[in-house]
Structures are given as C-alpha cells and as structure tokens.
Amino acid sequence: MKFPEGFLWGGATAANQYEGGWNEGGKGWSVSDCAKAHFDTDVTNFSAHNEITSEEIQYAMEHPEDMVNYPKRHGSDFYHHYKEDIALMAEMGFKVFRMSIAWSRIYLNGDDLEPNEEGLQFYDNVFDECKKYGIEPLVTMSHYEPPLNLVLKYNCWYNRKTIDFFCKFVETICTRYKDKVKYWLTFNEVDSMIRHPYTTGGLIRDRFKDKNFEEVIFQSMHHQFVASALATKICHEIIPGSQVGCMLTKLTYYPYSCRPEDVLEMQQKMRSIYCYSDTQVFGEYPAYLLARFKNHGLNIVMEEKDLEIMKKYPVDFISFSYYMSSCVAKNTEGLDTTEGNTVTAIKNPYLPSSEWGWQIDPIGLRISLVDLYDRYRKPLFIVENGLGAKEELVPDGKGSYTVNDDYHIDYYKAHFKAMYDAIHEDGVELLGYTSWACIDLVSESTKQMSKRYGFVYVDADDYGKGTYNRYKKKSFYWYKHVIETNGECLFE
C-alpha cells in the first residue's frame, strides 16, 4: 500500500507571495507589487477586490516604502531565507519543489534588451541549493507577476508584442538553467484571467473603456496560448528531455439537485473551466469555445500561423490546483453561497468548510483526477492543494515553538488517500504532489499571512510585523513520515 516508485512528493510556493526582496537585486516592479491588501473588507469575498484601477496603481508606485498595505512586497522573505527554507524542505524529504521565477527580476521592465545578471544569479543559487539536497525544481515561468511596465506601456497580454517579450524571457531562463531544471509550467492557473484579469494578464478595465472587456480577456488569452506553445518549443529545443506542463484551476462542480436544469448548468460550468486546458493539451480551440466567441460577438484576432503553432507544440502533462468543490444550480434563489479559490458558489450541505468558507472535499479530488485523466490521457501533477487556517505558536517543550495543526494532518491524510485510490483503483497516472504552501506565505485571495497553509510557520502577521523566524509545525514531522514511507504510513 504505497505510492508508485519515483512519486514526486514536495511543496509549492510562488515568488510573488513568498519571495519578498521586491526592490532588491535589481528587480523591477511587477503587478503583484501593487496588489493591495483590503483589511477593511470581508476577507472571504475575493470578488470584492480582484481588480485594480489605474489610480490605485499610481498610488502604489508613489508609496514604495509601504510594506503594510502591499504585503506581497515582503512575502515570507524567501529572498534572504532560501538556504534555511530549502534545508527545511530537505529535512521533510522533498523530492520536488514547485516555485516560480519572477519575470521582473530577470527583465526588470519586460522589454529590456539585456537580462539582470543579479536576478539570474539568485535563481542559480536557489537551484544549486536544491541540487545539493537532491530536490527537483518544478518551475512556473509566469505566476501572477508580469512586469508592471508591460501593463502601463503595452496593456500587457492584450498586446501581441508581449508574446515576443515572454519568449525572450523563456529563452533566457531555459538557456541559463538547462542543466538545473527539467520540469516547467508555462502559466499558473491560465484560466484565472477570466476571474482576476489584472494579476494573470496585466489587464486594467479602465484602460479599455471603449472595448468589450470580455473580448479583451479572450484576446489576451489567445496571446498566452500562442506564447505557451512557443515556450514549450523553446524549452524542448534548449533542454532535451525537459517536460513542460500547463496549469489550471481545478474547480470541481456538482449539480445542486438531479433536476436536468441543474445538471446542464454543471456541465456548462465545467466546460468554462476545461476550455483553457483543452486548448493547451489538444493544441486547438474546442468547438464550444469557438461557439462562445461567435455567440458573444467576440472578434479574436489571430495571425496566420497561430493555430499551427498551438497545434504543433502542446504541453507534455497537466498540472492543477485543487482545494475544494462547489455546487451549481440554474436557480440560486434561497440557496446558501460560500467562498472558494477566487470564486463564489453554492454551498454543499454535505461538506464541512474552512474558516474562509472553502468546502473540504477529498473525494472531489479523486473525481477531479479521474475526470482529467479520462479527458486528456496524459500524466497529471497536483501542484497546489491545502488548507488555510488561523494558527498560534505554542511552546514545543524543547526551548522553541510549534503549532499543533492536527487539522492540516487530517486534511492531507484524507486527500492523500483519495490520490492513492485514483492511482490504484482508477488507473490515473499521477507524477507527483506539491502542497500549497509548504512554508507559510501571503495568501493570494485575501493577501493575508494569517491564512496559513504551511508545514512551517513564519513569524509574520498580516501587517508584515514579526521576526520572520521559521518554526516546524506538528504536520512537518507527519509529512516527513509520509514521504519517507512513500505513503505507506497512511494505512498503518
């Protein structure tokens, strides 16, 4: 009763939420450096603050010293703690570490002629530290951090020029790290541009007042699809044997009832999630997405060879985030709603919820794995999964501190068993698993440090105050045992 030989256990982070050092080492501004925390709003309501205005960006740039209202600027300070953090990952026995490269640390403005050597050297140091412990990096090329200059000067991914800027960035990092990184992801949660267009696509609604914003989003998506295919091509040519994956938000929906109207609503909702990975895996737009373009009057401009490029260079594997499931119904009147991973949906009365309203559903992970594998017949990789919770340090009896996070252990144990069943009972090919986030960081949806996911506690609060010291939680030792037994201890 073990996971397959060579299964890649590990953890995941993102530079914009974890790295810090936002204005050190020659790094330029990214969109995330202007992502403001909203302490005065309902933190469970992501949709209340998932966009940003030009005025808000201007204000953020005029206050570079503000680390309180812009918590992603400090993150968990991995920039100065990377050796300590990677050593902690090694102590847990990590086989893989999912991370991202901050584009604006390599090309400060995105359109620079030459890369920033100090930024390149930082990631050299990180990858060398991983290699020292035998940890395989899994690197996301773009994870919610386009250079801000591309937004202000070009309207970022809406402008076709961004494809060339991105490809130059990809060629630079693939060439530099060709002997250090084998596994790559192109765009984090590529589907998320429809839900938060600023962080994913660098799109600011007030800059497109004379345009259909839905069309703007899908035009930008098209440019990302072409860029992803070209990135796959570049990576394969520079790094023989490399593997390039897509990454989607696996939002799993159930019909609230067996009424055919609710079942149809669920099917349509799932199509709205799959259309992005369908395009990257099959290398062509699905008929239902083309129908949406036509029915909504969306004119997506494509150059002559775009579809040929997309078809020729699809991804090698599918990675995804899974945190929860939700329900949908044709008529939502009178039904309770709950928050989730950048969405609001109908509450499932059969599932418990986290402090932030995210419903906990390990069986939904098995369902998701089966659905994805049956659909694509390509290897899968779970690159985000976890539970955010408020926590308190307590003495560990050994002169230090810990967190008794049994809720994390219970959550992971149930989800790992669901993974095991999907592999052994359903025949799913699952390459590995990286928890979100292995070390506490700034949450994306609410910009909070107090929403803690990690096996390691970082002593910093929502306002950036604290020592930033690291403390091992109870789950740290539990996960270490899971990895060293390759999951066998789950069945003891």
UniProtKB/TrEMBL annotation:
Classification via Gene3D superfamilies: Glycosidases
Superkingdom of this protein's organism: Bacteria
Keywords: Glycosidase, Hydrolase
PROSITE patterns with a match to the protein in the record: GLYCOSYL_HYDROL_F1_1 (PS00572), GLYCOSYL_HYDROL_F1_2 (PS00653)
Active site residues according to the UniProt entry: 384
Family named by the database record: Belongs to the glycosyl hydrolase 1 family.
Protein name in the entry: Family 1 glycosylhydrolase
Organism annotation: Holdemanella hominis
